[in-house]
Amino acid sequence: MIWETVRLSLRSIRRNVLRSFLTLLGIVIGVAAVIAMLTIGSGTTEKVKADISKLGSNLLVVRSGRPAGPGGPGGLDQVVRPLAEKDLAALVAHLTGARAISPASQKQVRVIFGTESLTSGVTGTDSAYLDARDWKLVSGRPFSDSETRSGTGVCLIGQTVRQQFFGAGDPEGEIIRVNRTSCKIIGLLEPKGYTGFGQDQDNVVLMPLHAYQRRIAGNRDIDNIYIAADDTTPTSELQPRVEDILRDIRRVTADRESDFAIRDMTQMADAMASATTTMTGMLGAVAGVSLLVGGIGIMNIMLVSVTERTREIGIRLAIGAHEKHILIQFLVEATVLSLLGGIIGILIGLALAGLASVALTIPFAPSPAVILLAVGFSAVIGMVFGFFPALRGARLDPIDALRHE
Amino acid sequence: MSAPLLITFDKVWKSYGEGEARVHALAGVDLAIRRGEFVAITGPSGSGKSTAMNIIGCLDTPTVGTYSFIGVDAGRLDRNRRALLRNLYVGFVFQGYNLLPRTTAAENVELPLIYRGVAARERRDLAMQALAEVALIGREHHTPAELSGGQQQRVAIARAIVTRPTLLVADEPTGNLDTARTHEIMELLTRLNADLGLTIVMVTHEADVAAYAERTIRFLDGHVAADTANAEAA
């Protein structure tokens, strides 16, 4: 009986291919939008988490200024006393439980090789930086301690910089110009890809801190200190130790707040992931509204269908169809229609999400739960919006219906 | 004739509208039809014959009075119970055939069986049997558009008898047909009446069509004006 009815509804959908398709469009667009949004969203979340763990697991980042929320600006409302080398030295000397401690000062600077140029993130740091950030060299060598101390003009470059200047060629030993200073390439960094926010992590040039301070920044400041915890020390334990040492060396009295901020990257990962999830949910809800519009379209077309087939309903009632038979027939038709839209929408949504994942280099993360939910939801829409037209058909008087032309 | 009563009208009134505009389509009709009878109902338009037919076929109910069908007070039943009664005991043949378009002859004939919950295989067999009785074997996969008027009406008759009903209600069954086809259809109805013992109530305004029946009930202004046995059929 149900199978019979499904076949019947498929036939009536086929009879009006264009009309059915246009009716479906609302549901297709709605479901496609929801699926694409949620799939891209969960991919982004994964990407953000992966990025932050790539940044270095168990990593604390110290920067000057009052502590602020994750991702927020570091106390723009006050005169900031920057971090200095004595702070770094105190940490290196006294901090236990750290695997690597490294300074990093950054600036976007124009880098030139021959006739080519590129604006890169230039970072002044030391030899511990690669360890702190879990970053490896594809070829060449890191800075030596003496190079770090003396501020020799040497540098390590990221894959994007290499690609721009040398293509697939070997960059080692070449001299590039960073700002107005020359710099010899001594090593090539492994690729890291884009962050979840579209930032190219391979468009970088690393140089010894002193060289950066003297030739690029023009001051002795340190923007950030990266501290990687060793395997047995959780960052939550490391954080107060760092704070104590820094308050001491920076002579922050007990009645004042710290004039530096320590950020725990693990916490940040969670915060960002939850922000992305919220965003995804909101976009999904907006897309859900179009499902409602699609439902109204289905209701409309089912009303037309019931009117068109009044005589058919009369015949069915006359030969002994129960009200519920007519009700079920039109309900099934509306549900099949909307389910069909749902399935097409899912395919389109997944295709869109697939394209987006290639374009944004985020993982393609379709969720079976979301897909099932979309299928169920579109079926429910068909039933809900098909109910009123179906009931109207079922309640027709057989004599009037038979007279209907 | 001593066959049991199938249909009785006891002072049946059917009225439409309110107050001044109230119209009585049937005004106190008494009527009895026995099992196995072949009855023609005639009369001019507005005489109440269609209303009487709708009540007989359990499509409609009297405003006042009692309509009893196979011993059931059918006039008091709700629409779903009457639907069940129609499905179990009544077959309909209409002037305009009323087949489902773009649906094959066999599928049209199967339709009442679907609402009875008969399994697909049995449905197919019963439908083929009914189509055989109206001599339409070989046309079962044709849609109404591919069939002539006479053939379409025979599909409609097959659909009406596939459930082995007690009563066949025919509303102007030959209204759209030429003389030769009319004769063909009437022969078929006469044969079904004789062979299957099918009770037939047929509405027609043509005297020569009514002549195929055993009995003619003539309606006029909501009353039974004449109720006569037809000589040649008796």
Broad CATH class of chain B:
Alpha Beta
CA distance, first residue to last residue of chain A: 28 Å
Q: Please identify the structural class of chain B as seen in this structure.
A: alpha/beta
Can you tell me the overall shape of chain A? elongated
Main sheet of chain A: which strands, in order across? 2-3-8-5-7-6
The pair of chains with the biggest contact is:
A-B, 20 and 29 residues
What percentage of amino acids of chain B are in beta strands?
Answer: 25-35%
Largest sheet of chain B: 6 strands, mixed
- Count of the domains of chain A: 2
Elements of chain A, N to C (H/E): HHEHEEHEHEHEEEHEHEHHHHH
Q: Compute the CA-based radius of gyration of chain A.
A: 32 Å
Could you describe the 3D structure shown?
The complex is a heterodimer of chains A (405) and B (234). By secondary structure, chain A is α+β, with helices and mostly antiparallel strands. Chain A has helices at 2-15, 17-54, 85-94, 129-132, 145-150, 159-166, 209-217, 235-249, 265-308, 310-318, 323-359, 368-394, 398-403; strands spanning 59-64, 98-113, 116-125, 137-140, 154-157, 175-178, 181-189, 204-208, 224-229, 260-264. Chain A has 2 domains: 2-51 and 276-403, no CATH class; 82-258, no CATH class. Chain B has 234 residues and is of the alpha/beta class. Chain B has one domain: P-loop containing nucleotide triphosphate hydrolases (Rossmann fold). Helix content of chain B is 33%, strand content 27%. In chain B, the strands form 2 sheets. In chain B, strands 6-7-8-3-9-10 form a 6-stranded mixed β-sheet. A 4-stranded antiparallel β-sheet of chain B has the order 2-1-4-5, with helices on one face. In chain B, a hairpin with a 2-residue loop joins strand 4 and strand 5. The longest helix of chain B has 18 residues, at 179-196.
